[in-house]
Amino acid sequence: ISRDCIKGSSGINAEYGGAVQVPRPEDTASAGIAAMEASFKTEMSEYVAGAEERISHFEATLAALAAEKPLKDMTVSEYLADKPDLCAKIEADIETRKL
Fold first, then answer.
1. From 23, 33, 41, 87, which residue has the greatest number of CB atoms within 10 Å?
2. Residue 90 near residue 80, CB atoms below 8 Å
3. What is the largest CA-CA distance in the chain?
């Protein structure tokens, strides 16, 4: 770079007060982003609460299954004893297939 070029640039700085001011664009997105973030946080906290509820339900179901007698040691009657809907369906199927 030549000395004339450098000398010329210092003249420009002196002419405009020593610094060039670059205008910044107006911030139009931050408010929308903050609103979306707040909405997302609310939605996720509701999802987490629902997930924890589903997990506790599944854990209770799993504990009930673990407490049952093993299937290999059960009779059909014992299995159907606590499943009245399934028992009624089987009986209805048997009735429709009678000769």
1. 87
2. yes
3. 113
Model confidence over 50-75: pLDDT tens digits? Answer: 999 999 999 999 999 898 888 899 89
Dihedral Cα 30, 34, 40, 45, nearest 10 deg: 160
CA distance 42 to 33: 14
pTM: 0.49
Distance (Å, whole) CA 70 – CA 95: 30
Could you report the per-residue pLDDT of 7-49, keeping only the tens digit for each?
A: 555 555 555 566 778 888 899 999 999 999 999 999 999 999 9
Tokens of 57: 């339900």
Asked whether 96 and 88 are in contact (CB, 8 A), the reply is no
